[in-house]
Amino acid sequence: MSSAARARMAAFGRRVAISFVAGLAMGALYRICGLRAPAPALLGLTGLLGIGLGERAATALGARITLHRAPPPPPGAPHAADLEKPSSCTCVPSAPQ
User: Fold this and answer.
1) How is 10-75 classified by DSSP, letter by letter?
2) How far is 80 from 82, CA to CA, in rounded Å?
3) Which pLDDT tens digit goes with each residue over 22-39?
4) What is the pTM of this model?
């Protein structure tokens, strides 16, 4: 495994750990304040799963659309409409010297 892949996995692990600790803290805060969770646990987890899957699907769709787009022409390149115009040059060739 490359060092870049290890770094990505470590960063992902840190994000998961932070999310888990934040969830525990919020659960403890709800309990201390005597509040009930705004949604049943199964319903809340199902909603989070939907959010995660929707984000993944949107990212994949966006990447797929980007792959199928033609790259922009380089700066200074002639436009396609200009290439189709007939030449209107009325220059007279010069005589050989």
Assistant:
1) HHHHHHHHHHHHHHHHHHHHHHHHTPPPSS-HHHHHHHHHHHHHHHHHHHHHHHHHHHHSPPPPPT
2) 5
3) 888 888 888 899 888 777
4) 0.44
